[in-house]
Amino acid sequence: MYKGRMTxxxxxxxxxLLPLLLAxxxxxxxxxxxxxxxxxxxxxxxRFINADCETCWRDTNTPAAPxxxxxxxxxxxSNQGEDAALAAAATTDAxxxxxxxxxxxxxxxxxQTTAVAGFPGALLRVAHGPAVGNYVGMxxxxxxxxxxxxxxxxxxxxxxxxxxxxxxEGSPLPRNMTRNALQPLWIKGNALSNQEQMSFQEVRxxxxxxxxxxxxxxxxxxxxxxxxxxxxxxxxxxxxxxxxELIGQTR
Length: 251
What we know:
By secondary structure, the chain is mainly beta.
């Protein structure tokens, strides 16, 4: 299985690095990977593997993702903790995600497909800058019509994933391994607004678990209203000519 120390991802600010990280994230430059000009994914497709099930990673019957779906692979901690076969890549964010879906931890593996219903005028943008040490600066912003009739509050997921090619540790298909996550909660009264638009934004520095390949990172996000309807989704894309230079550009 893909290696990397088992962690309980948290959001931490690294004081010496933070100005550089945030500047790299919010600047609209060639080195920033963002969802700008990317089509909205029509579906969320999530695979969950119990950390006890080593063979699940290599299972040739693993369902492929639907076309154009936003894809995530979660390794779910098991009762064996760090003794589980896939504990190195397990994250407690997977348990939180299952809870939000009202799903139980699978004994082997499971899949979940969620439609992106959308909402007129809703625009979600995600972006991340180059890795600096073990941190990545990221931003997520949501813009809505000022008179949006939605069930408040709005909740979201912003996930830093690592793109793993087919064949990685025997996987029969490509994976989007979850590495860290943020769950923003947006309340209407906290929005920046004018007569036409309201907006929310989060700018953070995200830690990377040991063993993560920075040149394979992708930021994915979605927002749902209090009724559970997914109103917006987005994923970042890096300019191909810049991906191999992301680390060196900030040092």
